[in-house]
């Protein structure tokens, strides 16, 4: 479905609910639109089930944009799940511990598990990047095992260290920069996820797997033990 949002924005809805196949399909749609080279295209903002397209209303109107995008959307829908085969796998190392994950023990207690099992369940799933937002390079990934899903904190932390790995409901994410945040923190990743030159390491449609590493490996990879 393609519908107007404002005088310079339209929204393409690919599905009514979150689906693990959607990130790759949306990423494929973004790539197809970008490769089309439309002179009126200003920006694209992918989300869980939608893609928002921003255009220059001086150069084109809603009807013209829709006429150009409808065949691309239709072509994607007829491809089935072939886009899933093209998605990239990114492996991120994580030092799961009390000193890097201050909510790890709390989450284990709430889940009726020990910390080792929480770590095993979090790192045994291959996640999909559904959306980017909140902060540059912040990738919303899903879905975590229901047994370790946890709500956001009632009172967010004023400062979360860069690289912190968190859980919020059935989503997981890595904080790319120091920022406020209310997710339940269970570890820290030493990999740099965003910089002004290469921008975001993770893209919508990527597959992500977390790999547990030791304290020594974390420090050797450039990780910092800051609170």
Note down, in words, how this protein is organized:
Residues 2-202 form the Carboxyltransferase domain. This is Allophanate hydrolase subunit 1. InterPro entries: CT_C_D, Cyclophilin-like_dom_sf, PxpB. With 227 residues, the chain is an alpha+beta fold. The chain has 2 domains: 2-85, Gyrase A, domain 2; 89-220, Cyclophilin-like (Cyclophilin), CATH 2.40.100. The protein has helices spanning 22-36, 62-77, 82-85, 104-111, 115-123, 215-220; strands at residues 2-6, 9-13, 41-46, 50-55, 89-96, 127-132, 139-142, 157-160, 164-168, 171-174, 179-181, 184-188, 194-195, 199-200, 207-212. Strands 5-12-9-10-7-6-15 form a 7-stranded mixed beta barrel. It has a 4-stranded antiparallel β-sheet with strand order 1-2-4-3, with helices on one face. Strands 8-11 form a two-stranded antiparallel ribbon. A hairpin with a 3-residue loop joins strand 13 and strand 14. Helix 1 (22-36) packs across helix 2. It is elongated and about 55 Å long. The mean pLDDT is 90.
The H-level CATH homologous superfamily of the largest domain, spelled out, is Cyclophilin-like
Which structural class matches the secondary elements?
Answer: alpha+beta
Residue ranges: pLDDT <50 for 5 or more in a row?
none
* Global shape: elongated
What fold name goes in the CATH topology slot of the largest domain?
Cyclophilin
Strand count: 15
Order of helices and strands: EEHEEHHEHHEEEEEEEEEEH
Number of helices: 6
Average pLDDT for all residues: 90
Binned, the helix content reads: 25-40%
CATH architecture of the largest domain: Beta Barrel
- The Cα radius of gyration reads 19 Å
Question: Taking strands numbered 1, 2, ... along the chain, how are they ordered across the largest sheet?
Answer: 5-12-9-10-7-6-15
β-strand amount = 25-35%
What is the name of the CATH class of the largest domain? Answer: Mainly Beta
Whole-number total of structural domains: 2
Largest sheet: 7 strands, mixed, barrel
């Amino acid at each position: 479905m393609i519908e107007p949002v404002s005088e310079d924005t339209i929204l393409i809805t690919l599905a009514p609910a979150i689906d693990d196949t959607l990130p790759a399909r949306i990423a494929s749609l973004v790539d197809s639109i970008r490769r089309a080279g439309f002179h009126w295209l200003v920006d694209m903002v992918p989300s869980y089930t939608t893609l928002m397209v921003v255009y220059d209303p001086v150069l084109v109107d809603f009807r013209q944009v829709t006429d150009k995008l409808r065949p691309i959307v239709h072509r994607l829908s007829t491809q089935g799940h072939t886009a899933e085969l093209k998605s990239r796998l990114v492996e991120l190392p994580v030092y799961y511990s009390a000193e890097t994950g201050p909510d790890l023990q709390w989450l284990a207690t709430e889940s009726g598990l020990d910390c080792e099992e929480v770590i095993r369940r979090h790192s045994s799933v291959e996640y999909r990047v559904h959306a980017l937002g909140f902060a540059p390079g912040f990738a919303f990934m899903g879905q975590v095992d229901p047994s370790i899903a946890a709500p956001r904190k009632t009172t967010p932390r004023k400062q979360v260290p860069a690289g912190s790995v968190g859980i919020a409901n059935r989503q997981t994410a890595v904080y790319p920069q120091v920022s406020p945040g209310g997710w339940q923190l269970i570890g820290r990743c030493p990999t740099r996820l965003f910089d002004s030159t290469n921008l975001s390491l993770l893209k919508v449609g990527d597959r992500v797997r977390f790999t547990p590493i030791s304290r020594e490996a974390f420090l050797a990879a450039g990780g910092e033990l800051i609170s």
